[in-house]
Input
Amino acid sequence: MAITHNLGFPRIGKQRELKFGLERYWQGDSDPATLEALGNTLQQQHWAHQADCDWVPVGDFSFYDHVLDMSFLLGNIPSRIDKDTGSELDQYFRVARGRSVGNDACGSVKAGEMTKWFDTNYHYIVPEVTAETTFSLNPARLIAQVKNAIATGKNIKPVIIGPVTYLWLCKEKDSSERIDLLDDLIRVYQALFAKLAQCGIEWIQVDEPILVTEISAEWKNALQKTYHTLKHPNLNILLATYFGTLKENLTLACTLPVAGLHVDAINAQEEVKHVVDWLPVHKVLSLGVINGRNIWKTDLSQTLQWLQPISSRLGERLWIAPSCSLLHVPVDLDSETQLALDIKNWLSFAVQKLQELNILKRGLNDGVASIQAELAENTLYIEQRKNSAKVHCAEVAAKVAALTKSQGERQSSYSERAKIQKVGLNLPLFPTTTIGSFPQTQAIRTARKHYKSNELTNEDYKACIRAEIERSIKTQETIGLDVLVHGEAERNDMVEYFGEQLEGYAFSQYGWVQSYGSRCVKPPILYGDIRRPEPMTVDWIAYAQSLTAKPVKAMLTGPVTLLNWSFVRDDQHRSITCAQLALAIREEVLDLERSGAKIIQIDEAALREGLPLRKAEWPYYLQWSVEAFRISANAVKDETQIHTHMCYSEFNDIIGAIAELDADVITIETSRSDTQLLGVFDVFDYPNDIGPGVYDIHSPNIPTEAEIKSLMLKAVKRIPKERLWVNPDCGLKTRRWEDVIPALQNMVGAAKQLRCEC
Ligand code: GLN
Ligand code: ZN
Output
């Protein structure tokens, strides 16, 4: 009898109720009781959605972030947070976002640093430790949730992050070594386990995703020590790994003294046979057979066939589940009323994924005959997707198959091109420019909303955007920038804007996924071969260029970013999908060039985000992603200048790949971490032009001329001045014109000083 369970359910609610509840609370428009009540309601709803699971998770719900919840559970709160002021909830939000409610009596404190959760687009609050850190159990919130869950009458399974992964995610705020805190940490987990056992808990899911990464012997020993110490007579530990293959950690994962092991049978399907062989016969094996990272329907017949022999071999010892927490997928496909029906039938969100799980369980336990109807329906849609003309276009496939390396190569080397471009563009030393977007004012947003709801005609909408472009161009001319942009007023989002104009993309209404705290993203769904029916940006750019004698830089989103910020197909390798996107962008680039654009920027904001968890797999990813960029960009003539932009500051480990993009100019984020980032140019001789971001657009502060100059002078020490540009560190769409104008004036002022002094 196979058993089903779930590793975690999305927290935000079908209609993003959590987001709106949190924002009301932070604005001071609701009170703690209302927020707590919302939390309870959502949890009850989520448990109801999981009613068919044999074991339902508890502790997966969070008001902001589950890693931050762990820090509070373990009594690990940064010392800058005053523990005597306000409630625990206030303190929690102070760590999460720098303040609790709008007019926090404590004022604001430095918010905890945020970073990506493994290779997902979910961001967690990095736990902080020092040599002085001691942990202490603070279980009230979790225990309350456990009691509520028990009251539903379901079998419940608390979910927590394992001590080793938790410690691994911690950042030392001094020169101490976080691993030295392990013994103290284990002690607190022991106390927690005792408490949970007292509540009558039988199974606890302990997440150790570091087992799918490359870890040193020290951390492997930490895992051994932890689980040998944590054994509890009445509490069964289900050790959960996800997001990838175990590889060299496989035997370790199988032999740790726990009652069960969960493995990602989507990403590590090939490893499962070895796990079955290695796993001691008293242990439960949980297989994550439903993809928790994408939105596609599971091929139930195929999965069932694969599971049957394992089920016969393991019997009661087999559990089945989604591959990871469903946090990374939208809540409920039934909310979607506007998706084309055929495409909708190919999809499965969290609620549907749990239904698939239940069908599989019935198939395993009661025989295939018992799920005949469900299987037939599933097979129908799987086959429709496989054969759909919406998905497969022979012409696109042929173009990708015929791609050659030379299509990614410029006609001449950078140094040759640079000479030609210098003459053609006639730019001063230290040319000034921006990253693309200007403030998205309320007026623009309202116009777009009215246009989408047919309250504004196409002509009126266009007129509104044109007026905005005119304002951007005039403002830039007045400020005295050298390379202008049109301002991206027509774009709601840098992926959605292109996705909406490409064939092969669909958009959901409610397909929200939590990015961090109350922030959600709605990734477009890339379901089919990518085609560009017509130019996507040419009219706007040509219009902007018609208003000025200065060069206007055209603005595109690159193939790798389009890929990494979408839900993408699972029926072909990501590199193929990326190459298709590259071909579409290449056509756009050539159309722009034909229409007179002399400078074209292709943003690759998310290149880094696609890096695999294991370093050993980086070179392959970088190879095909760099190739895709080159295909998209490099068909242009020598005189056309290609820019790219990346918005992060950790470059050191991929700088070689970035140089290989062979963009004429790259603009990067530096202002928040100047010395750290520029350091890379001490050891790596970056060959082309570079614009280190000298204006931190993430902060409302206006940088002074002196600050900008001092950052640029640091750059001058490392990069020849002939190759330096002066620009902000990202797009300005989230800022207000009142801040942008003086900041850009200071930037231009600083550039003028540099031209005189360097
Ligand atoms: N061109 C985009 C903008 O300026 C780039 C955004 C980004 O890097 N995230 O908004
Ligand atoms: Zn950026």
Notes: Residues 458-479 form the longest helix (22 residues). The longest strand covers residues 284-290. The chain has a mean pLDDT of 96. Residues 435, 605, 645, 647, 730-731 surround zinc ion (ligand 2) (CB under 6 Å).
